[in-house]
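D-cysteine desulfhydrase
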Amino acid sequence: MLLSHLPRVQLVHAPTPLEFLPNLTKALNGPQIYIKRDDATGLATGGNKTRKLEFLIGDALAKGATHVLTQGATQSNHVRQTIAAANKFGLKASVLLEQRVSDGTDEYYNNGNLLLDEILGATSIEVVPGGTDMVAALEAKAKELELQGERPYIIPGGGSNAIGALGYVSTAIELINQLNQIQLAPIHLVHATGSTGTQAGLLAGIAATHSNLTVLGISVRAEKSKQEENVYKLTRATLEHLGLSADLIAREKVIANSDYVGDGYGIPTDSMVEAVELLARTEGILLDPVYSGKGFAGLVDLIRQGHFTKDDKVIFLHTGGAVGLFGYRKTFSNKDAYRL
Ligand SMILES: *Cc1c(COP(=O)(O)O)cnc(C)c1O
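Predicted structure tokens:
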């Protein structure tokens, strides 16, 4: 499948590694577990949004934009990667942060991604209350910038539209090539799903290439039926954007599991803490508290429940975000300090 006619910039250190996890596989005594390292995409500590930004920044430049606008939660990985990508291509960046988590610690509101946002130097960082209509807020901000003579380009939350999802169409092709090289089957792909672009792009790429790979999204926010409907819609829109039939995606291939959200978006769960520590202590790999930690907690629990056979090969797509750990220090460590 050709993506070469679509505007794109180069950001990702591709292909990201596909690695076997021998110690974790042994510890869980279930299927063979692999990891696709999209935490290592390379832009300002990496993550999955960099995949989408290759196409979003490409489109912004093709349209003559001078200024990108986006939004996310306080500890948004997407916002951090968007500012970095804008810097690299000489675009200004303004961001709106929704205070979706209201009872975080001081570190949540100052450290982690937010510290990096400041170092990266966005043109403006504005915080708005949780529950704000972020789509309307971005449009209002774009109007304001237009009056100042800017040519704004709106990137939706999480970079999840039919353009951003192309980043994961391209990742599906990259992964399929890696699987063919090492002759790995049958395959189940598992990852954290939020604003849906990652899962929709993967499903569009897998459907368009008629590949035999299942995808399971572990939701970090919405309940199952809503998440599946949103992923399904964006998968169809992405296929159409590629000039393909939206009907290539069968509704039953869109599967989300919302059993690991806990009390809500960005609120820690015991299983997330256990999952972060488990992968760190078996394989030396760091997950994040909001997305990949909950996604991995879902995978670990499903393996323990016998959801996969011993012959199955499971790939966890690591979507990044470990710098978010610095916003959640007290969730992982009660120590005051090691200073003498
Ligand atoms: C945004 C994000 C996700 C979710 O991806 P979507 O495309 O928004 O569904 C998963 N993991 C991390 C670390 C993220 O930042």
